[in-house]
Amino acid sequence: MIGFSKDFLCHFHLGLIWIRLLFSFLPERFLQNDFEDGTLELYCSSGYCLQKILLSKLLGHWVLQISGVFCTFPVVQLLYQFDQPKMNWFTLIIGSLVFTLMCGIHSCLALGIISHSWNSLQNLTTLPTLLPLIIFCTSIETEWFHGLLLMGYLLLFLFLYPISVSITLQKLISQ
Predict the structure, then answer these.
(1) Which residues have CB under 8 Å from 31's CB, separation 6+?
(2) pLDDT for res 147
(3) Cα–Cα distance, 131 to 139 (Å, whole number)
(4) What percentage of the chain reaches a pLDDT higher than 90?
């Protein structure tokens, strides 16, 4: 490691992991197929809680997306000798859940948009809200209080997700 301090390398490689997670969650339109084939209307008209159904769909998507990162993270952790492995795992789990919730909210808000320029629209709306999360997650190695901020971020989006999804879908289906 000639020329670089250990702190720089740790932040740099954690940043690469979070950018990889960001680009794996961004291009997804979580509910678009369900909206097009009428499944969302059936969910709304059924007696089941719509928020629980959609949250379980998001959690299933999160498990599939994060499994690849979970398999490769121990190897990266050994190569770059991260200082706090338990804190990195905690950050990886909580931060990726927040990524999933935020991308789910943004994709739900954009359900009515029928356009081929979805990626550019989503990048303009989603990236500014994900930037503080990436900063919290990459600096968790040296700044312990960012873990508290990350937990607050998760609680905020766990609260906002059911509200924004239900309002958006009710307006969208009533049209």
Answers:
(1) 40, 54, 57, 107, 108, 111
(2) 74
(3) 12
(4) 0
- Terminal-residue alpha carbon distance, the chain: 60
Segment 141-150, tens digit of pLDDT = 667 777 788 8
Residue 91 exposed, middle or buried by CB count within 10 Å (0-12, 13-18, 19+): buried
- In this prediction, residue 1 carries a pLDDT of 46
Q: How far apart are CA 42 and CA 51, in angstroms?
A: 13
Counting every residue written for the chain, the total comes to 175
What ranges do the domains of the chain cover?
50-174
